[in-house]
Amino acid sequence: MEGFVRGQLDASGGANVRHELVIIGAGPGGYVAAIRAAQLGIATAIVEREPRLGGTCLRVGCIPSKALLESSHRYEEAAHGLSVHGVKVSGVALDLATMLARKDEVVATLAKGVEALLAKHKVTRLRGTGRLAGPGRVEVTGDDGVKTVVDADKVLLAVGSRPVVLPGVVVDGQRVGTSTEALAFDTVPAHLVVIGGGYIGLELGSVWRRLGAKVTVLEYADRILTGIDGEIATEALGLFRRQGLEIRLGAKVTSARAVDGGCLVECEGMEPIRCDRVLAATGRRPATDDVGLETVGITPDRRGFIPVDDHFRTSAPGVWAIGDCIPGPMLAHKAEEDGVACVEGIRGGWVHVDYDLVPAVVFTHPEIAAVGKTEEQLVAAGAPYVKGVFPFRANGRARTINDTTGKVKLLADKSTGRVLGVHVIGPSAGDIVGEAAAAMAFGATAEDIARVCHAHPTLPEALKEAALAAEGRAIHA
Hints:
It contains 14 helices and 22 strands. By secondary structure, the protein is α/β, with parallel strands linked by helices. The strands form 5 sheets. Strands 1, 2, 3, 4, 5, 6 and 17 form a 7-stranded mixed sheet that branches. Helix 4 runs antiparallel to helix 5.
């Protein structure tokens, strides 16, 4: 822990230590960049104000939400889904406190792991809020308000993002909140209104619906999951509605606020909705409004993103940026790839992250996952393509686990057969898309995937069959 102790002294007024690289933000992009930089021999410090490292993703995002999704799914399956397997269960009861404690334990364990990894690689931790303070300087403000300026040859901004809240939505952190609050409700709300039909809203809406809440999802667009292939999103809409989510499309929320021990949500052209809690899940924006960009002459774009070149360099000499605060998919794994590529570029290495091949996963049940182009994008571009679709109801493994909802959809170039996009709704969709992403990264064709021997019976056989279907020769459909 020597590096951490030294860093804490630096941030609270001890003698300055000049670092070759100072990273502001210890989320997935920042801490991964720090580890890789240390591996490359770069003397690195990382600034983070939160006691736990790992950023939004680990503390109040990806990890805790997936823990609750898993626990709530098991609860629902125990209550309603085991009889088909010949397992009779009675007296199933929810212990919400234990479920939340398990979630917190998962987060704490992984956060300690990040801390240990940084210590192992001798990355100095500077505890406090970091911001640029002119060329080659980072100001760190500790919890006690004491400010320390750290000298750096290079600065990497990995400041992440924060929730977007619509005008008229009054977040009080109690009745009306963001995903942070929805991860820690101490009781199951009788009626939860979710504003936004994207990843976060549908995942957390599913958690509380499974645990007994009435859940109403209000989506402004005419569809849910606007970044997902339309055919897949349409199927998902029907499935979620059958599961019990009330989803209203074309709902323009004008206000949401706490009223008389509950909440009141108002939408244009609709009757007001009274409920117990409101989750505002209307996207995220870069957290770049107070990081000192003006001190080095960086101007973010109108959405708050920091412009960078193909080496993640900003317009300010000696300042780089990665992750959610620059253009591209706002996903933890994209930030990690940015971080590695950025610091390898600093050392003269190859710099490349293909944003067209960043997988996306919605961890509902069934899972929804995608990589590459959607069918709508190909149509809009006038790109000739062929499509192969294979349903999980025809997959042996899906039958044995009694999880046959959904399908695999593969899109390939009509003339070359090169795979352009893979979209999955069904069991282990994220894992299947992982295989597809690897194949696409190496320029695989549908025939390449079709000719790979897949173990039987497994779910990825559905990807093989979809590849065969793109060539009009599926075996099991």
